[in-house]
Amino acid sequence: MLFDIDHIPFSRKGRFLTLSMMKVPGGDGARALYLRFVAGGDERPSLGRLCRVEFLDAMGKPAQATFELTPERLVARINAGSLTFVIGEGERLHVRGENAGVRFHLEGSRYDYVYRTPTGVDCLVAAVENVKFIPRAVSGTLDVSGAWQRDHSADVSFAFTGTGIFEGNVDFFRTVPPTAPLESFADALSDVTVEFEKWYGKVPRGAHGQDAAHRLASYLLWANGVPVGGQLTRPAIYMSKNHMINIWSWDNAFSALGVAAVDADLAFDQLAAIFDHQDGSGLLPDYINDRDVLFAFTKPPVHGWAVSLIAARHPDFLTAERKSYLRDAIGRQVDYWLTYARTDATSLPSYFHGNDSGWDNATFFAEGGPVISPDLPVFLILACETLATLLESDPARAAEWNAKADALQALLFVRLWTGATFGARLAGAPDRILPGENLIQFMPLLLGTRLPAEMREKLVARLVAGGFITAWGPATESPKSSFYEDDGYWRGPIWAPTTLLLWDGLRRQGEIELAREIAEKFCSLASKSGMAENFDARSGRGLRDRAFAWTSAVYLLLAASLSDDNP
Hints:
Blueprint: E1 17-23, E2 31-37, E3 49-56, E4 62-63, E5 66-70, E6 73-78, E7 81-87, E8 92-98, E9 101-106, E10 113-116, E11 122-126, E12 131-139, E13 141-149, E14 152-161, E15 165-173, H1 185-202, H2 211-223, E16 225-226, E17 236-237, E18 247-248, H3 251-259, H4 264-275, E19 287-288, E20 293-294, H5 303-313, H6 320-340, H7 354-357, E21 371-372, H8 375-390, H9 395-416, E22 425-426, E23 429-433, H10 453-465, E24 469-470, E25 473-474, H11 496-508, H12 512-529, E26 534-535, E27 542-543, H13 549-562
Antiparallel strand pairs: 1-2, 2-3, 3-4, 3-9, 5-6, 6-7, 7-8, 8-15, 9-14, 10-11, 11-12, 12-15, 13-14, 16-17, 18-19, 19-20, 21-22, 22-23, 24-25, 26-27
């Protein structure tokens, strides 16, 4: 079952409000459903945890629940009773119960408290989470508890119960209560159902027999969306509302690719949400959330490649305004790498840390850095080509970017081609190829006709013979490598972004059958194991966070390529 609340959070586009399963703090590994507000980023141990959800039977006693998750609602069944949760307008949770009840236990920080507002309603404050919430009973009973203890309230909770059917709702806010009219549970359910189905109706058709995976991927790209506010200058798609509650500056490009066919404005927003915070040097932050912009790391410059793919599939995407914005932003990005990440114009740029490469702990960073790897000049060459296209009305400037691409290509072939493959080298010891058999060596396939036939043939043969393409898709480190680990993060598991990059590279080299094989394997993998952060390359088991946006985006793109309706 792919729609499983144990792995997939319940949320809605443009909301921080989320219900998901988490480990109980201080417990023995036990998990419970938590009410969360996923603002503030993933460096906080709480990850937005507000309240532990406790289910009550018809007699008001604690009881176990089973769950049914769909994009528009979460249903908890308790014996003969049930509770249904719906996310309505703004950050508002609606609850409808029948022969059951629910209590929300505030499990927060030192200064959490509850007070009575001037209008006579109870307001709970999760102080460190910086969130306030007001519960209301529409029908049935609302019970709010919390004993004052010098400077905070202890044992704060609220419960909805009733004889037969009851309804309630909870508003979440930062400053003053929202003034939006209270909608009914039925209206909230109807509105969110229509919203999701409208979204889903625009998603390109997928692979035959994979309806559940197709719907899950569509849901996650929709439900992982968060609103404008704080450092978020645009509506953003977080990687997940489980643990990875940020937008990173290369995952944003894959999310943009995934939603371009559904919502062109949202696709552009994914790119601009990061570029809006670009440093004057051209450096992009590692990630942003509503609170933070982190420059300790950055990410690989895949954005020129992504924009070219979007424009090829959706010619209307590049309006004059978007073209101007992206031309300037991507131009500054390339200049950063060519100015600050290399010694001079006769050398290749390098990554200072594995996190900068996006491959975090990959084997080519086993000895530290800076590392000169073949993917970085490839991404910069593709960005230069995109910039030249964006400057078609200015041939002189377009020629300058094409010249930079040619210069990088020459350096790539001279410095990193070994005669058999493209290797990675330490910037401080450039005469030695770093050990490992990782997928990074095949990124020059993206160069298309720029890559000489001899290199292409050797790379494709090495890819096939090297054991990289397992039954489930391309492993980031070959299972034949001594560095390989089943759950080694970037040392073996299958990742969506590298799968898409390899797929596109093979297509550009005319290796259509091999590209299709990889697409089929990855789609089968996602259909089996969901939209996980990464996957065990040998068993196909989903690893780490199981509700990932870029996995969903890549699945939808590859599934569409396999569909008879989307050749």
